[in-house]
Amino acid sequence: MNLSVDRLSKQYKNKIAVDRISFNLTDGVTGLLGANGAGKTTLMRMMSGILNPTSGSVTADGIPVQTEEYRALLGYLPQDFGYYPEFTAREFVQYIAALKGIEKKKAKNKTEELLETVGLSDVANKKIKTFSGGMKQRVGIAQALVNDPKILILDEPTAGLDPKERVRFRNLIAEIGKTSIVLFSTHIVSDIEHIAGNLLMIRDGQLIYEGKWDNQKGDLEQFYMEEFG
């Protein structure tokens, strides 16, 4: 699958949040790096069909982002995902599966599998409002994966996770990236250093670097700091 972002822009009154960004993604993990306010979240919201661009387009094998067909391919974890506090973890993941049109038995099995994957099986019947920030984030990760997405967009997905959880999550993402397109936004360089084969760097709404990290020499954090001055 090819995910194409073509001259994508978003302007708010006098501010250009994303400025004519173009790139193509195929299966594998791509790290999206940039300081807070660089335009990462705006870009990902447009790629997820939540925000309409001022100009430009997003397509997956020619399928436009605004279509049901595209949404069926998509898994998305926003920086602050919305949840129903009275729902249990199990109820919430099953609810998202239902919204995505997944058959009931399959949704139930997938929910159990994902709760095990993210380490929440033992608290599956507890209400999300009682969870720590890291546990809520793990619920968010599970709901993003419930439809086995071919395109997975993750906005600061390791926020609130402890070091052990971050390692487990990175391993999971590396595995998903073998058969799906994964775009992983972060400002924590170590989270993507060992799993992202490709890098995108954004500054002030503009793409300032696109390439394979394998081609670079040395330390990613040093390279990142050099690019961002």
Order of helices and strands: EEEHEEHEHHHEHEEEH
* Total count of helical runs of at least 4 residues: 7
CATH topology of the domain at 3-83 and 149-227: Rossmann fold
Per CATH, the class of the domain at 3-83 and 149-227 reads Alpha Beta
Largest sheet: 6 strands, mixed
Distance linking N and C termini: 35 Å
Backbone CA Rg: 17 Å
Instruction: Please state roughly what percent of the residues sit in beta strands, choosing from under 5%, 5-15%, 15-25%, 25-35%, 35-45% or over 45%.
Output: 25-35%
What do the pLDDT scores average to? Answer: 91
Which strand order do you get reading across the main beta sheet? 6-7-8-3-9-10
**Structural class of the helices, strands and pairings?**
alpha/beta
Q: In CATH, what is the homologous superfamily of the domain at 3-83 and 149-227?
A: P-loop containing nucleotide triphosphate hydrolases
Q: Give the number of DSSP strands.
A: 10
Low-confidence spans = none
Q: Mind telling me which CATH architecture of the domain at 3-83 and 149-227 this is?
A: 3-Layer(aba) Sandwich
Helix fraction bin: 25-40%
What gross morphology would you assign? globular
InterPro entries: AAA+_ATPase, ABC_transporter-like_ATP-bd, ABC_transporter-like_CS, P-loop_NTPase
Family: Belongs to the ABC transporter superfamily.
Keywords: ATP-binding, Nucleotide-binding, Transport
Protein name: ABC-2 type transport system ATP-binding protein
